[in-house]
Design goal:
single chain, alpha/beta, six-stranded parallel β-sheet, six-stranded antiparallel beta barrel, about 25% strand
Length: about 325
């Protein structure tokens, strides 16, 4: 998979089949559309291409919103590549792009991507003031020699999946529902940074992750998760919250206690793949009571991860 950050960088000699959208989270609805596009690409020998934007148009039109994105560009491109997409174009969305007329943008797609087919959802629109709706694009296709395919984004389960539904599930801590909508556990990634070392002081060291502020973080609480390290999925119990047992902490933190693992992870980027919510965040009367609960969380986390893996295998 090739990932580029401007449409101008792509000058394809082979014809391509293209789809355009935010694809935030690359959820099951996106996967359904991509599957259709890939089937067409295999039949025709065309290059499967996804054109997406960063920042998300909503961030430009309405202003920055923390905790908005399910996936940032590199992770999104990786997920699309895993599906079989050969080229991902993450084009910048700004005031200039927002004012491009739809017909002009079509010409750019033809020039840079050698586009022969455009696959879109039925409510798709592009260009200035969303003038490039399906009817407009079909007319452009007739005039300029490309095909427009409209896909009903109802997936195989007859359910309309959206990025906003995934965000809502995460905001209420329902990571199991988010995983169902995504077709895989939701993950967030960040660099391991030095924290207050309180976990180490009580014999339960944690990896403190610096999460980009634009990413959605699940509701505060304790979760069972997988953390991929060195090609292995390491089981973990993850705390998201304010650490209420200790005074003076007012920042939301993401701390992962890795089970059956020891090693120096400072400075590395880790991903946390959320499988189950174990409990809400709460304050304990003493450090001993906190440690006892964490031990129970570790057992509950092992059980939840084993059940998840067993369900995947069956």
């Amino acid at each position: 998979m090739r990932h580029i950050y401007s449409l101008a960088e792509a000058n394809l000699s082979r014809p391509s089949v293209v789809t355009i959208g935010a694809f935030d989270g690359v959820h099951r609805g996106h996967q359904y559309l991509i599957g259709k596009l890939l089937g067409h690409a295999r039949t025709t020998g065309h290059i499967p291409v996804v054109l997406t934007f960063y920042p998300h148009p909503q961030m430009v039109l309405k202003g920055f919103e923390p905790g908005f994105y399910l996936t940032l560009p590199e992770d999104k491109a990786r997920l699309l590549g895993d599906l079989g997409v050969e080229l991902v174009v993450t084009h910048p969305f700004n005031e200039e792009v927002r004012h491009i007329r739809a017909a002009d943008f079509v010409d750019r797609l033809l020039r840079h991507l050698n586009m022969r087919a455009l696959w879109v959802g039925e409510d798709f629109a592009m260009g200035y003031q969303r003038e490039g709706n399906v009817a407009f694009l079909q007319q452009q296709g007739n005039e300029k020699g490309f095909e427009v395919r409209v896909v009903d984004l109802m997936d195989a389960g007859d359910e309309r999946v959206s990025s906003s539904r995934v965000r809502e599930a995460l905001q209420r801590g329902d990571v199991a529902e988010a995983a169902r909508l995504l077709g895989r556990p939701h993950f967030i990634g960040g660099k391991v940074v030095v924290g207050a070392r309180r976990g180490q002081s009580i014999g339960i060291p944690t990896a403190n992750l610096a999460i980009p502020p634009e990413l959605v973080i699940p509701m505060r609480g304790v979760y069972a998760a997988w953390v991929p390290i060195g090609g292995q999925d390491v089981p973990a119990v993850v705390n998201i919250g304010l650490r209420p047992t200790f005074e003076g902490d007012s920042r939301i933190t993401v701390e992962a206690h890795l089970l059956d693992f020891s090693g120096d992870l400072y400075g590395q980027r880790l991903e946390v793949h959320f499988v189950a919510r174990l409990r809400e965040e709460r304050r304990f009367e003493s450090v001993d009571a906190l440690v006892a609960q964490i031990r129970r969380d570790m057992e509950a986390g092992r059980a939840a991860l084993a059940a998840y893996r067993s369900g995947r295998a069956s």
